[in-house]
Amino acid sequence: MKIDFDGNFCIISELEEFDPRDVFTCGQAFRWYEEADGSFTFINHGRVANAKKVDGKILLKDVDKNSFDEIFYNYFDLDRDYKRVIEELSKDDVMKSATEYGKGIRILNQDKFETIISFIISANNQIPRIKKSIEKISEMYGKFLGEDENRKYFSFPSAEELSKAKPEDLREFARVGFRDKRIVETANLINSGIVSIDEIEKMNLEDARAALQVLPGVGPKVADCILLFAFDRKESFPVDVWIKRVMEELYLKEETPKSKIAMRGREVFGKNAGFANQYLFYYGRENKLGR
What we know:
Shape: globular
Order of helices and strands: EEHEEEEHHHHHEEHHHHHHHHH
Number of strands: 8
Radius of gyration: 19 Å
């Protein structure tokens, strides 16, 4: 991997395992917009940036050396050798196909509180609606970050800011439905320290899963998503309808409860379970496996 800076661009070259389309559309993140030119504008830690792949190079617009070192290097998990991860996973034809299809995926290291709220909203919901709800919450309770010819941008609110929200406002304006009270209660639990993000970070996987499920609206699958996408727990294996179908069709060959699929996924793929999960999810969803 080679990193260069030119004006307001960070240029990443000699890195095959990075494609913004794979990264942003694989279901792990919601605060992104696909632009007319095929690039992706995204918001992370109060910064608005844009990513595009051109001639095998990744162009990160509005990313200088300081913000790259402090924010985006970790956000895009650039310290990890995904070529090795793919080699370790590609032990069977299924994973060879899945990793080849989603070769450009990198698992983002996202803001913990934002990820918790986002995946509470994601339960039994569709991605376009999730994205709209999160944007509206940011507009209502976050800070204005700036605007361009396409739209205005806002930061995601802190636990303190969101704890002051009224559930009825979240329901009416952000269209979060039955999740309204859960969002405010979760923000209060985290803001008050009753549930400590810092403490969860230190726990083993099962204790962390249990601690997150104290939060209203966080069940096993949502907890596993939060751990994988925000707590760097790459051994986590979230099971949604697509992963259930893919695992049953390609590995288990029978109807299996979600809890057992999560355990089986961790057994089969070990420390790389989270990566396998994302490759299989993306491959299964895009190719409509198990329907």
